[in-house]
Amino acid sequence: MAEIPLLLLMLCLQWKKKKPQLPTSRAQIYVEFIQTLLNHMATKDSDDVATDESIYKYQEELSKIGKLAFDALLEDCLHFDFTKFPHGDLFEKLIHVGFFQVSKRSALNREKIVYFLHKSVQEFLAAWFIVQELKVKKNETVTFLSGMDTFKKSRKMAEVLKFVCELSSDAVGIVFDHLRYVGEKEGLTNYNFTRTPSVHDLSGEQYEFILLCVDCLFCCPASNRPAVYSAFLSRVNHVVILDEKHSSIAAKTHFFNNTDSFPNYLFCSRWNTNYDDLLSIWFDLNAVVLTCSGEIEDVKKYADLRHADFFLKKSEKRNFIYLRCITIHVLHFNLLSELISAPVCPSQPPVDNLGKNEDNNIALSLTENRSDQTQQHCVSLVREVDLSVKKVEDFVLLKNLLPLVTAPRDIAVWGSVTDALE
């Protein structure tokens, strides 16, 4: 948050006030910031506003501004006509302290328009309006979200939806209901995974839809996440993607340790992700590894797999770790050798020592037509193989590995097999 100058200023103001702790959400930062402005106005004019008056006394006034902010965002505008600006002392004072900026449209068009201090302020106030409307219209059909009836429009309003989730636990259900409507309408949760599941099987909009839903989940207060998790899983059709930020939050709060249900597929971004966070998530999910010998091993034994390109898949109420890509740059020789130490197919025993084999001209085989009835082990769903063959041991590893990979998309073998055999 500190990367945004305005948010950094807000944090500094909170720090200056020497509060016991800083706000834990963006929404709370904006609430405190507006409260600071109100206190500042009260100090300058104590006859009109008491110094201890809360922001929540002005819910109605802020909601009016929020409605203007919301409507402007729907039209991709960062301003609105001054003629629409509500009248009253509060609004005039907010302009005076710089919360809004008033200017003319152009040198030729003298009409006044009102700009927000920052787009994020506009998004926060739009979310404030939504939350207040939900409080007033508890038993009525929510119609004001109809302006976001496509995913493209909802994606543009993503920050507003996230602010809503931060501001009100009661409003989270409405947000997920809206996302369900959009997702079902546009088929965003009708996934078509290949035999080697990957985020690459998703369309761009499906990928972004899942991330938006995950964003909304983790914008909820930590104490409320377990309650909305079931609804969240339903909206994303039990497929979850965690980027580095969400992996960190899930690990530090042990989120999955407090849930009763798990996603069918869990994909984690490897870029800039703390590998210890991934390991913590594995522990919380009680993840296991099914080796090629058919043994189910605790993930602690294969903790180094967190450095690999992997995903989790639920099967028979257990979370299994599957490798998506095998590369010697990430997985060291001994780890790979142990994972494939015993074959699934007894007709093709592993090669232990090529030096004792009279015929070194051994063909590398791929079993593409395996029966899907057998239990999938940790390398059976590998999509890419990228290995270097420099020694006899490398060739042995390659020879034993490839028959276990059922449907690879891309295989790259570097080095000279002939040199290795010689």
Tally of strands = 11
Write out the strand line-up for the largest beta sheet, numbering strands in chain order: 4-5-8-9-10-11
Q: Biggest sheet, in brief? A: 6 strands, mixed
**Which H/E pattern describes the elements?**
HHHEHEEHHHHHHEHEHEEEEHEHEH
Write down the overall geometry. elongated
Gyration radius from CA atoms, angstroms: 28 Å
Which stretches are low in confidence, meaning pLDDT under 50 for 5 or more residues running? 343-373
Q: What is the rounded distance between the termini?
A: 58 Å
Number of helices: 15
Strand proportion, as a percent range, falls in: 5-15%
List the topology elements.
Layout: H1 5-16, H2 26-44, H3 59-74, E1 79-81, H4 89-96, E2 100-104, E3 112-116, H5 119-136, H6 151-156, H7 158-167, H8 169-185, H9 204-219, H10 225-235, E4 239-242, H11 244-252, E5 265-268, H12 275-284, E6 288-290, E7 296-298, E8 309-315, E9 318-327, H13 333-339, E10 384-389, H14 392-401, E11 410-415, H15 417-421
Parallel strand pairs: 4-5, 9-10, 10-11
Antiparallel strand pairs: 1-3, 2-3, 5-8, 6-7, 8-9
How would you portray this structure in words?
The protein has 15 helices and eleven strands. Helix content is 41%, strand content 13%. Among the domains are: 97 residues, no CATH class; 103 residues, no CATH class. The chain is of the alpha/beta class and 422 residues long. Helix 1 packs across helix 2. About 7% of the residues have low confidence. Strands 4-5-8-9-10-11 form a six-stranded mixed sheet.
